[in-house]
Amino acid sequence: MMITRREFLKHSISGLGAVMLQPWLKWNALQADWPDAERLGRNCTAGWIEMKARPTDNSPTVKKIYEDTIMVWLREVIGSPRSISRKWVETPEGFVYAPFVQPVRNIPNQPVLSLPETSLGRGMWAEVTVPYVDIYPEHTPCSAWLQEVQWPRLYYSQVLWIDDIKTNSQGQVLYRVNERYGNCGDIYWAAAEGFRPITEEELEPIHPDAQDKRIVVDLNYQTLSCYEGRNEVYFCRISSGSRFDYQGNPVDAYSTPVGEHLPWRKTLSIHMAGGSTGLGWDTPGIGWTILFDPDGAAIHSTFWHNDFGVPRSHGCVNATPEDAKWIFRWSLPHVPYDPGDVFMKGPGGTVISVVAA
Length: 357
Fold this sequence. Notes:
Layout: H1 5-13, E1 40-43, E2 49-52, E3 61-65, E4 70-72, E5 75-78, E6 87-90, E7 95-97, E8 101-104, E9 117-118, E10 121-122, E11 124-128, E12 132-137, H2 144-148, E13 153-155, E14 159-167, E15 173-178, E16 188-191, E17 195-197, E18 213-218, E19 223-228, E20 231-237, E21 259-261, E22 265-274, E23 281-291, E24 298-301, E25 317-319, H3 321-330, E26 341-343, E27 351-355
Parallel strand pairs: 18-27, 24-25
Antiparallel strand pairs: 1-4, 1-8, 2-3, 5-6, 6-7, 9-10, 11-14, 11-17, 12-13, 12-16, 14-15, 15-16, 18-19, 19-20, 21-27, 22-23, 22-26, 23-24
């Protein structure tokens, strides 16, 4: 059951009570004041970006757009390239370079008041369906991302495990948010309206009787195709491993491994971390993940950029949330809602061919 944006904001303004009074939280809760539009965009960079009068860097700057600012997304247009992509987002006030803007929606939900019993204990899988939701850790965080960010938040399309519910002194329903897989132990609370329960029906396999399923990832064209025999049944743009480091130097360290692979693990959501201090990554709630390489390369959902068609990952195959979910449901092995995680022992999964020529 959906609730109105006005009701969602009213609940958010009521605050999170004592949970947010933990001493390590040195900031006031930011209240959502998002535009009222069906399609929105979020500045998904870690800093500010410029809104331009026209879709080119040479045009006048209209204003600065700060991290996590939500804007109205009118349409995507073709303009002058800043790096590789030529895509820009048109807003009512100007144009913003599309790779910096995550497409989001604001769809608050009616909180549930009880959780089902599963083999994992009481809980449910849920997806963030608002641009972002502030989180309030239950104890001192162990994850690097929680220690480094100014405003701990979860973002549109992330998938998490909910394992407890409570109502604070202001009458707001809170979910206790957990990560079943890959988490160091962090647990946090968040406004329940920001999460949509994922149903078992959403995980039903697509074309379960189809033969000879195969995934082809083309690194040259930055595309992914799903085949049933010789028939291409799905196509999308992806972002594979980056060919350059943060200084612009050519590197092979982030290359997506070429060759034929079999999935060794599929999971609804996982916490990924790696790399060296200062240059590494630590990302929670990565949905619809298919791990296919021993070093951790995977096909998965992406919420931290919108640069599909351009190589820019640390070796994984980044896909939009919609594309990643379709591929996850279509490919083998099938992953049931409970436990939402499957390890492969031997052959049998959908072959993933990564080609570079």
